[in-house]
Amino acid sequence: MLPSLQLPPLALSTRLGLAASIVLVGLMVWRFSAQQNAPRGGGAKMGGGMSRAKALWLLFTLLFWFFLCPLLALDPLCPSPWREALLWFAASMWARGLIELYMLYKTKSWRPRYGIAHDVLCLALLPAVAAWAGLPAALGAGWARMSAAVVAVAWCSLCVELLYAAWFNQLVAGKTTGDEGIWFADQESARFRRVNRVTALNNLWLYAFYAVVVAAAFGLLE
What we know:
Blueprint (H helix, E strand, L loop, with lengths): L11 H26 L14 H22 L8 H26 L4 H21 L10 H29 L21 H25 L5
């Protein structure tokens, strides 16, 4: 069924951006997770160890939210209202990312409820922005349909992120601040086994969809 989508390749700049993000972000997340799991002074680094499932989840969110969404939105083949929805979503994620990094590493005051509040805001505004920009006219074929699917999966991934944040906050009893704060689910702790299994399962369908979009971007579904 996928070959019948007949999707032409996206612009060269979009394809180069996607390829560069996969390589650079992939290397960055691999190095970051390795550093988090490397013992230092008898324990893991600030924030704690990171499981393989959570490292892959982090990689997905960076590739999809921070790069695929804005790159697709800026491509000429992405129609309104999906362009407006994806641009707004990506801008809000970049702003959140910078604020979250500052609060994690500088003030050490990040709490899951801040991320949850942002997730809820995005869940409400992502479809609202699309509807405001003219939703009924954009339910066509080709990249209009694929762009709609990207928006839908972005919305679903926010639901997943919200679940993870609330679940993690409960598991660590809200201890995410200060020098001893826990930010990640590690590979060994029994309390994180279930959330790691659920994360691994969600990673399967999310990466499958991401792979389809990237394949389409490079003209492999044409």
